[in-house]
Amino acid sequence: MAPFELLQPSSLREAIALLDAEAARPLSGGTALMLMMKAGVLRPARLVSLRRLGLERIEAGPAGELRIGAMASLRELERSDLVRRGWPAVTRALRTLSNVRVRNVARIGGHLAHADPHTDLPPLLTALGAQAHLAGPRGERSLPLEALYSGYLETTLGRGEIITRVDVPAMGARRAAYLKCTTRSADDWPAVGVAVVLDGERQTIVVSAATDKPTRLAAAEAVEQLDIESDQHGSAAYKKQLLRVYIKRAIHEARHAH
């Protein structure tokens, strides 16, 4: 691993200033970042830790939305009574996301900013209408979570910009489900991931892993037009057939969700 500078700012303003530099990257949980650095895929000269910025809170907002601080761990999210009661599909999805050791360390902000299409929460949170709140050298902004992704491992985050919070609208009468198919253990990377949200007769379908970023489908039949590439998890034809099956299963599960 190439040498790097590790800095631990105590304010958001300071963190943004330190990140507004070439070869600087934020460090939240580091579960993916460290693996990429060890493999030589990333060689940042500076890591800026976000641990002291007070971004760990999980709480309800004034409109009943779920507010998740970017430094909340995936395990904290999984164990949250607030999440379990109001957004049970998120709790269920987390139970098969990697393993407990990883969930104890990984943070929601890093999980989302990593932009690997095989991660589990982006398709589900996208289907639920989540908003990402960002802060950077030019100030603060918010955008639909799906607008954060531009391609494989690519985001629309600017230099020095970080995710500070994710808001998930109240479920109301909506029902949701997330299903994934893995080719090895149940907590492995998915070959395909499917999130479905039902609001009366309206269906929201978002797929991942088979595509280079979370992709919204106008209807279940739209899977036939998807551009799917083969990878180590399966061929394009195999993944398309999996999507046909798993979209139907996810719709059925969402209809019967509590």
List keywords for this structure.
3 domains, 14 strands, alpha+beta, Uridine Diphospho-n-acetylenolpyruvylglucosamine Reductase, domain 2, Uridine Diphospho-n-acetylenolpyruvylglucosamine Reductase, domain 3, 4-stranded antiparallel beta sheet, single chain, 5-stranded antiparallel beta sheet
Summary of the model, kept short:
By secondary structure, the protein is of the alpha+beta class. It has helices at 12-19, 31-38, 74-79, 81-86, 88-94, 100-105, 108-113, 121-127, 236-255; strands spanning 5-7, 24-27, 46-49, 58-60, 66-69, 131-136, 139-144, 149-151, 154-155, 162-168, 175-182, 190-199, 202-208, 215-217. It contains nine helices and 14 strands.
Structural class: alpha+beta
What is the ordering of alpha helices and beta strands?
EHEHEEEHHHHHHEEEEEEEEEH
Q: How much is the radius of gyration in Å?
A: 18 Å
Count every helix, treating DSSP H or I runs of 4 or more residues as helices: 9
| CATH architectural group of the largest domain | 2-Layer Sandwich
CATH class assignment of the largest domain? Alpha Beta
Number of domains: 3
